Amino acid sequence: MKYVDANTVQKRMNTRILKNNILKYLFLIATLFGLFVLAILIIQVLRDGLQWIDWNFLTGKLSNDAERAGIMGAILGTFWMMIVVAPVTLILGIGTAIYLELYAKKGVFQSFIQTNISNLAGVPSIVYGILGLTIFVRAMDLGNIVLAGGLTLSLLILPIVIVAAQEAIRSVPQHLSEASYGMGATKWQTVKNIILPAALPGILTGAILALSRAIGETAPLTVLGIPALILPFPEGIFDKFTALPMQIYYWTLDSSLVAEYVNLAAATIVVLLLLLFLLNSTAIIIRNKFQQRY
Amino acid sequence: MSVSMTEKSNINLKTTVSSKKTVHTDKDKVFHTRDLNLWYGQTHALKDINLDTYEKEVTAIIGPSGCGKSTYLKTLNRMVELVPSVKITGEINYNGRSILDKSFKVEDLRTHVGMVFQKPNPFPKSIYDNIAYGPRIHGIKSKKILDEIVEKSLRGAYIWDEVKDRLKENAYGLSGGQQQRLCIARTLAIEPDVILMDEPTSALDPKSTLRIEDLIQELKKDYSIIIVTHNMQQAARISDRTAFFLNGEVVEYDQTDDIFTNPKDNRTEDYISGRFG
Amino acid sequence: MSVSMTEKSNINLKTTVSSKKTVHTDKDKVFHTRDLNLWYGQTHALKDINLDTYEKEVTAIIGPSGCGKSTYLKTLNRMVELVPSVKITGEINYNGRSILDKSFKVEDLRTHVGMVFQKPNPFPKSIYDNIAYGPRIHGIKSKKILDEIVEKSLRGAYIWDEVKDRLKENAYGLSGGQQQRLCIARTLAIEPDVILMDEPTSALDPKSTLRIEDLIQELKKDYSIIIVTHNMQQAARISDRTAFFLNGEVVEYDQTDDIFTNPKDNRTEDYISGRFG
Amino acid sequence: GSDSENNASGNNGNSSEENNSSSNNNEEENNEEIEELEGSVVIDGSGTVFPLMSRLAEEYMLNEQEGVSVEVSRAGTSAGFEKFLQEDGTDFNDASRFIKEEEQQKADDLGIEVKELKVALDGLTFVTHPDNDWATEMTPDELKSIFLADGGIETWSDINPEWPDEKINTYGPNENHGTYEFFYESILEEQDLVDDVNLQQDYSTLVTLVSEDVNGIGFFGFGYYVNNQDKLNAVHVDFGDGPVEPSLDTIAEDGDYAGFTRPVFTYLNVNNAKEKPQVLDYAIYVMNSVNDFAGETGFAPIPEDEASKLVEELEALK
Amino acid sequence: MADNHTKPSNAVHVREMIHQKKKVKNFSQVLEKSIPVFLFLFALISILTTAGIIYTLFIETIEFFKIVPIWEFFTGTVLKPMSQNPEFGVLPLLSGTIISSVIAMLVAGPIGMMAAIYLSEYASDNVRRTLKPLLEVLAGIPTIVYGFFAFTFVTPLIRSIWPEVEATNILSPGIVMGIMIIPMIASLSEDAMTSVPNSMREGALALGATKLESTFKVVIPAALSGIIASFVLGISRAIGETMIVTIASGSSKNFTFDITQSMQTMTAYIVEVSGGEAPAGSTIYYSLYAVAMTLFVFTLLMNLLARYVSRKFREEY
Ligand SMILES: Nc1ncnc2c1ncn2[C@@H]1O[C@H](COP(=O)(O)OP(=O)(O)OP(=O)(O)O)[C@@H](O)[C@H]1O
Ligand SMILES: Nc1ncnc2c1ncn2[C@@H]1O[C@H](COP(=O)(O)OP(=O)(O)OP(=O)(O)O)[C@@H](O)[C@H]1O
Ligand SMILES: [Mg+2]
Ligand SMILES: [Mg+2]
Ligand SMILES: O=P([O-])([O-])[O-]
């Protein structure tokens, strides 16, 4: 006895297939929507900012006069901050990842740290700003200098770097470390000679992406108190500073005071996006170039 | 397998294998396992294993998937301890010393008991560095000595001629069979006494398989070899003794000929006749 | 395998299998494959396949890993098209209609040609919903009819008695063998003509394997079955015809008895005697 | 832009010339002690005064003391005082109102000596949408009643029946700002504001809000109006002698707009000035040069003699 | 085999050498023991960070509640921190935060989900490999840039369609935040769906189901926990987002639900009040910490919820 009637099945078949095809295009449109907005955003920013970018703008000092204003100070501020952030997060991030992946005993404590890290990754950046203000600016009395900003951003991206490093370490095939242990290598020898070199491209890729997150962060810096006007270029990590995103923020806010500030903000955005683009390309190149075949 | 097919395969086996089979009972024991039990957390993976292996013999371990073959093998060089939840009771003596004793340094044990894995797993380094890895971590730094070790080991694994002109190239440029021989060479470089092999040919094509099988017959002259295989014919071809594992137990352990021609246990027979999966 | 072992297994095979084997040549063709070639990107996975399968027969496909068994099977219900880079030439006729023709809707084809996979893959739903899934997408909503279909299908897969009291429970609570029979029942629910099976017992224990083998013998009365297996003994036990694949080619295709007792090609013989992997 | 170089040098030329002509007597002293200073000067406070102060800071760093870093922020007068009146507080606090008693008290408690430097005059300006062609002239009372909770005014027609019958939307700076307090204390005499007044932290936001709301009216310093004349109308206020448009002339000392005019200041932490030569130097520079930049940033200058008196007092601190 | 097989017994005696080296390996043994200790200390930093956040927020929040009763804070609808008679009701900030997050999720939820379905179920490998990273570019754009975009482009655009909308309003930053969150939802949901074993899909397709049917009846139910988790994380992100709202929504502290108006979120309040090194000791200063604490607890709960969901309701397959 047949329950499934061939005729009804046939009839329904066409509507079912049609529905499938229509929705497929709807889904595609939704996917492209984000890219469409991205395109508009970039076009908008380029239109407002591109013709304001010239040598003077890139190398000049800040100024109230839109025609004269330059962002070298902000570029240097961002640069020095990264000089702090990069080594701090790399050392702490890789160290923590190695500990969690390779040394920590699976158990309550390890999963506590792990939960803690994934929660930290979800803490709003402005809260890190308050932490930085309280600890680095106030308690350690550093003031709002590059070092304070850099340490604050380091804490902010540390969870990201840790997780990326953990993933990179985890993705080193077990059979490689087994081979090393099988030769009588100790744990640290295996970590140092086999696991870390194999994981390094993954770690670097993750770290660079995290750095580019730090470069664009504004909220924590607003809490640390970056002056609206500061002319001298920072010459080290103990100087006061401004940074690219802060400059975008102030110029956007003051755009109704001086109309051209919108253009300055847009031009700075172009520079910032370009910087991020470079960093991301580096990450991709590293990933592709050093991708291992196991 | 049905009846008449075996009459044919019979012939095959005779020509390629039987001649190499030798059985010694007077030899020295290498591993002496008594009442070995092993748990992965709650999973009782090895149950009361009693098994002796002998010097300069090939011991094969066969059994269906999940029966504990790899686990037993990895217990012999304590690689199994890399799984954190592992619990072991019982005793394993290696040349008379208890290896489960914490005073026996694993690094030490593993320089005596080398291991070759199922999937060829060279390091993502040059061929040279792959072989030199073991000697280096043990503190040998002299370029000259390393050169000698590399050549000797590669020759030992019958791969020297194929790679001698490309020692600086990445090991992943080699074919699967070459990689597996490289891994064997890498093990030879630290001059172990025993070589454990976990399905070393299961990822290889028939031709490479044959080469490795031949190599095992060669190595047997100098090393004691314990090999896990899911290929019964392979066990029949190359081993002196065969242990049949099932659900973590040793169902039968005997000279290879006996196991295959005259199994004493029904389950062994079932397995050999292909009643599993 | 060595000589004397087969004398024993011989007996086994005779009692459990040989009696069931029947060979028809006068039956209708179900699939008629001509000059089938298939590429995954650059990989030429199937080469000039010519193969006919027959109604209410069990056709077994054997061959070493990577030889194209699964690929061929998945071509028969066009599941292979899920791999985007696939290119197919040649012809496959199903009951006289060309299935590679784009006008033959895959959804349609697949309701006629059911499939059972290597690893049991029930949906993460209740047992009932697993079976009802197929009928429901075809528009059957009536609770009463669905109830009937579920019962009939589960009975057909010989699992009704084991699950009838827990139809609302999640299918993942079942054992591996039960899951596999559930998947077979799920296929029966849409009343196909053909059932394709890709190593349906390779993930199962011996007992479950036996049940599935018995079930296949039952199903053969109503369905045409094509089964891929890496277990030669299984092919010998349950199939009417056997095709031996190697490197994407059909090396030999014949009645099962002939293939195993009297292979015409050396390579078939090599394979049967275990010279691979 | 590409021609910024020309502009830049032009500006520089201009300002230094002005400096020369307006402060001849200081020139000699400056020459005597062209001492290279360094360190930083930290300024926070009024957003109203910010354009003037940041302008001065920039000029100072470019033309006077390259080694000194003057950092200017603008949290608002009241918020600025909070930062000024603490240990290691800011050096200057810009203010668009007088320091309050409580604030002075707190300074005394902390032992901070505060010096008030009047830097310019600002006219509180009421702004409307450019399309608003009715409410162009109002009396102070009318303006007040719009913002008062008890003012009885909800729609434009409540003021003048001929005006549209549309609800008036009110805007202003929030309580961080001296401008708010000046309005609340001096003009509304501390009566409650309407409930739905839209108070914002940033003046730019206010400018945008009013410039895009036909029924909006807002208030802030004259400077933010002049910079946005194209987007905003300023209400002409009739203090009794006819409507007065706020302009640099009318908001000047004793000008016609005096009713809504207020002095703006920067308050100096004298302790810091004594400790840090650059702070004092900057204070002197500010009082010497402030009148040169008042006009272009939207303020009326203070009388010359008031300025030079303050300079003298500052010199005395050396 | 063409090799000349040399027995591994002559020339170099590796075994001997290894044995000798063993004795002089004290330093490496110390290293072996001390490295884990160092690494452990590094791992502690992340715990210290959490402890630091909780401690600083907690201490000052306690101070705040000594001045402003906790009840008043959480039920007050008026927020006038700088006024002569300051009032510290957090409800205006909560309404701003919730409304902007709701708007963001209304944008990001459906669009992100549809994108996830397309990428995981329909797109070919190549298309996915191009589109997904491109989409993730959206997530990598600094929020300040989105703020600029909301303020200078989206708001004017909305106002040209809907003139009642104010120049600063919660709608525009809400939408832009949504766009920013799209890739997060798309990517995480896609991961969840991709990790549903292919055998599930094959099972459905082999029964004659269309892709749509296998997606909605098999894949999505199986991936539901991951999908829900991605939504929760999206909400958490929206709640914590700062610069977009700070720039594009102004700083009105009205307690309202009118999306055409300017509203302030908790994050924007923190920016405004701290606006440079916040003065210590005042009530306003403490209010900063009370609001931050509220924000922290909110997002912490969301993150824990996401974790819980993705763990507890993970389908067994
Ligand atoms: N790391 C592990 N954690 C928990 N259980 C494990 C682990 N490794 C193996 N097992 C379990 O121990 C049992 C024996 O596993 P083992 O790998 O030794 O089998 P095997 O005989 O080598 O199988 P195969 O032929 O598939 O390699 C199995 O039930 C397996 O599930
Ligand atoms: N999705 C795919 N993309 C590219 N190549 C594939 C794909 N699937 C299979 N192949 C290749 O096609 C060939 C045949 O594969 P197939 O899966 O059909 O082998 P099989 O006989 O089923 O092997 P097994 O016994 O391991 O299941 C192999 O070389 C395999 O690498
Ligand atoms: Mg194994
Ligand atoms: Mg297959
Ligand atoms: O910013 P204010 O001048 O109003 O304090």
Automatic annotation (TrEMBL), chain A:
<keyword id="KW-0812">Transmembrane</keyword>
<dbReference type="GO" id="GO:0035435">
    <property type="term" value="P:phosphate ion transmembrane transport"/>
</dbReference>
<dbReference type="Pfam" id="PF00528">
    <property type="entry name" value="BPD_transp_1"/>
</dbReference>
<keyword id="KW-0472">Membrane</keyword>
<keyword id="KW-1133">Transmembrane helix</keyword>
<keyword id="KW-1003">Cell membrane</keyword>
<dbReference type="InterPro" id="IPR035906">
    <property type="entry name" value="MetI-like_sf"/>
</dbReference>
<feature type="transmembrane region" description="Helical">
    <location>
        <begin position="194"/>
        <end position="215"/>
    </location>
</feature>
<dbReference type="InterPro" id="IPR005672">
    <property type="entry name" value="Phosphate_PstA"/>
</dbReference>
<comment type="similarity">
    <text>Belongs to the binding-protein-dependent transport system permease family. CysTW subfamily.</text>
</comment>
<feature type="transmembrane region" description="Helical">
    <location>
        <begin position="71"/>
        <end position="100"/>
    </location>
</feature>
<feature type="transmembrane region" description="Helical">
    <location>
        <begin position="120"/>
        <end position="139"/>
    </location>
</feature>
<feature type="transmembrane region" description="Helical">
    <location>
        <begin position="22"/>
        <end position="46"/>
    </location>
</feature>
<dbReference type="GO" id="GO:0005886">
    <property type="term" value="C:plasma membrane"/>
</dbReference>
<keyword id="KW-0813">Transport</keyword>
Automatic annotation (TrEMBL), chains B, C:
<keyword id="KW-1003">Cell membrane</keyword>
<dbReference type="GO" id="GO:0035435">
    <property type="term" value="P:phosphate ion transmembrane transport"/>
</dbReference>
<dbReference type="InterPro" id="IPR017871">
    <property type="entry name" value="ABC_transporter-like_CS"/>
</dbReference>
<comment type="function">
    <text>Part of the ABC transporter complex PstSACB involved in phosphate import. Responsible for energy coupling to the transport system.</text>
</comment>
<keyword id="KW-0472">Membrane</keyword>
<dbReference type="GO" id="GO:0016887">
    <property type="term" value="F:ATP hydrolysis activity"/>
</dbReference>
<dbReference type="Pfam" id="PF00005">
    <property type="entry name" value="ABC_tran"/>
</dbReference>
<protein>
    <submittedName>
        <fullName>Phosphate ABC transporter ATP-binding protein, PhoT family</fullName>
    </submittedName>
</protein>
<dbReference type="InterPro" id="IPR005670">
    <property type="entry name" value="PstB-like"/>
</dbReference>
<keyword id="KW-0067">ATP-binding</keyword>
<dbReference type="InterPro" id="IPR003593">
    <property type="entry name" value="AAA+_ATPase"/>
</dbReference>
<keyword id="KW-0813">Transport</keyword>
<feature type="domain" description="ABC transporter">
    <location>
        <begin position="31"/>
        <end position="272"/>
    </location>
</feature>
<dbReference type="InterPro" id="IPR027417">
    <property type="entry name" value="P-loop_NTPase"/>
</dbReference>
<dbReference type="GO" id="GO:0005524">
    <property type="term" value="F:ATP binding"/>
</dbReference>
UniProtKB/TrEMBL annotation, chain E:
<feature type="transmembrane region" description="Helical">
    <location>
        <begin position="35"/>
        <end position="58"/>
    </location>
</feature>
<dbReference type="InterPro" id="IPR000515">
    <property type="entry name" value="MetI-like"/>
</dbReference>
<feature type="transmembrane region" description="Helical">
    <location>
        <begin position="137"/>
        <end position="158"/>
    </location>
</feature>
<dbReference type="GO" id="GO:0006817">
    <property type="term" value="P:phosphate ion transport"/>
</dbReference>
<dbReference type="GO" id="GO:0005886">
    <property type="term" value="C:plasma membrane"/>
</dbReference>
<keyword id="KW-0472">Membrane</keyword>
<dbReference type="GO" id="GO:0005315">
    <property type="term" value="F:phosphate transmembrane transporter activity"/>
</dbReference>
<dbReference type="Pfam" id="PF00528">
    <property type="entry name" value="BPD_transp_1"/>
</dbReference>
<keyword id="KW-1003">Cell membrane</keyword>
<feature type="domain" description="ABC transmembrane type-1">
    <location>
        <begin position="94"/>
        <end position="306"/>
    </location>
</feature>
<protein>
    <recommendedName>
        <fullName>Phosphate transport system permease protein</fullName>
    </recommendedName>
</protein>
<comment type="function">
    <text>Part of the binding-protein-dependent transport system for phosphate; probably responsible for the translocation of the substrate across the membrane.</text>
</comment>
<keyword id="KW-0813">Transport</keyword>
<keyword id="KW-0812">Transmembrane</keyword>
<keyword id="KW-0592">Phosphate transport</keyword>
